[in-house]
Design goal:
globular
């Protein structure tokens, strides 16, 4: 059995060797691991040292322009909200037509605003206070700095506003206007009419020189679209069957769930509309202003919805969601001109009054037998004027000047668009035939249906 003793001895020897060699291996491993770590740290330090150092001015410039880009995207997203509200509040047979109009408001609007509208709205030194033109397209960028906007992102933000003004009309003329005529209207409003009146205030024109104030567009954007829509609704006349024997006959919307979702989308998009109009985001003062603007926007929207619900409930005996939805939009429109210059309590008052006004406005249109399927004029026109006047009542701005600006710009939009719509009517290009209207514009104008 000597081989057994030999095997035992060999095993014992191996155990002893492994026992003494393990600490050495454990000790060697950290040395091997530490070397690459040290080298990596050295390489990282070198890379940091070689990275360009940004000045505070450059950081402010990057923040302001990046945030404005995000706000421009939010405002552009509002187009989907308008499309859903307008199509939901109308008959299903006109859904594609309404969606198509909203799409072209952006597509055609961006192109015409790029070509001439932007230069008309911001002519710089070439303007005389009433009219001017800077250049075709977008100008060159200047030196970066705090509050300095790159012309490219400024154009994106302003183009989204122009498309908003145009698309308001789509709901007011829904169900009876030719698609080709709508394109003509949209191009003219976005490229010429809106930029000229926008210059009067935001481009440094005569109203701005008088001290007229409209922070984010209750008048410049919403009242322009609302009064253009009123002109279109008047010239077109009501939809077939809307008024019979002198009485109002409601035509229910086909998808209130869709319209409700659209209002929520618009509410969210408004946080690009109003806070984005601060145009600068760096620094304590700008941060404080943006937070106030956002909160005032929320409070006014909420109060407008509650006020419209209560008034509609009292008048009709049951709560009407369509009134509440328009009340939310009314509050948003009313606060847009003054969201940076009123307190939270004043924002609640402004939104509440707007919510009441929109209900009275809808009833007034019915009494006058003016067919506005979505309430575009009461929401954007009437409450837009209220927002401009409220800026003089609650803000530190001259009330007389606020009333002047809140009347002149809407009247200008109404008159110019009334002339355009009347011309299209005279040449027989404004309204579809009775047969096409009864069939629905989806089939008669586009040869397709939204639902199968």
């Amino acid at each position: 059995m000597n081989w057994k003793h030999a095997l035992t001895g060999l095993t014992a020897s191996l155990v002893v060797i492994l026992a003494f060699s393990q600490p050495t291996l454990a000790f060697d491993e950290p040395e091997t691991a530490e070397k690459p770590a040290a080298e990596a740290a050295e390489e990282t330090t070198t890379a940091v040292e070689e990275a360009p150092k940004l000045s505070l001015s450059e950081l402010y410039y990057a923040l302001d322009n990046s945030m404005l880009f995000l706000c421009a995207v939010l405002v552009l997203f509002m187009q989907s909200g308008f499309a859903m509200v307008e199509s939901g509040f109308n008959s299903s047979k006109n859904t594609i037509n309404i969606l198509f109009k909203n799409l072209m408001d952006v597509c055609a609007g961006v192109l015409i605003y790029y070509t001439v509208g932007y230069g008309l709205m911001y002519p710089g030194d070439s303007g005389n206070g009433y009219f001017g033109f800077a250049q075709f397209g977008i100008g060159e960028a200047g030196d970066p700095g705090p509050g300095v906007l790159h012309p490219q992102v400024d154009f994106l933000f302003q183009a989204a506003f122009a498309a908003t003004a145009a698309t308001i009309v789509s709901g007011a003329v829904a169900g009876r206007m030719k698609f080709s005529s709508y394109l003509i209207y949209s191009i003219i409003l976005t490229g010429i009419i809106y930029p000229i009146s926008g210059y009067w205030k935001w481009g440094g024109g005569w109203l701005d020189a008088m001290g007229f104030y409209d922070f984010a567009g209750s008048i410049v954007v919403h009242a322009v679209g609302g009064f253009a829509g009123l002109a279109g609704a008047i010239v077109l006349g009501p939809r077939i069957g809307r008024f019979k024997a002198g009485k109002s006959v409601p035509i229910p919307g086909h998808n209130i769930a869709q319209a409700t979702l659209g209002v929520f989308i618009l509410w969210v998009g408004w946080y690009g509309f109003n806070p984005g109009s601060q145009l600068a985001f760096g620094g304590t003062d700008n941060t404080n202003a943006v937070m106030l603007i956002a909160t005032n926007t929320t409070l006014a929207a909420a109060t407008g919805g509650v006020a419209a619900m209560i008034l509609g409930w009292l008048m009709y005996g049951k709560p009407d969601i369509s009134m509440a939805l328009n009340g939310v939009l009314a509050g948003l429109v009313g606060i847009t001109a003054n969201c940076d210059s009123v307190t939270n309590i004043e924002a609640i008052a402004i939104g509440g009054i707007a919510g009441l006004l929109v209900v009275f406005g809808i009833l007034a249109l019915e009494k006058l037998k003016i067919d506005d399927p979505v309430g575009a004029f009461p929401v954007h026109g009437l409450c837009g004027i209220w927002g401009g006047v409220a800026t003089g009542i609650f803000g530190d701005y001259n009330l007389g000047v606020q009333i002047l600006g809140s009347v002149v710009i809407p009247v200008y939009a109404f008159v110019t668009m009334f002339i355009l719509f009347s011309f299209l009517k005279v040449i027989g290009q404004l309204r579809v035939s009775e047969e096409d209207e009864l069939k629905g514009l989806d089939l008669s104008e586009h040869g397709m249906q939204a639902y199968h």
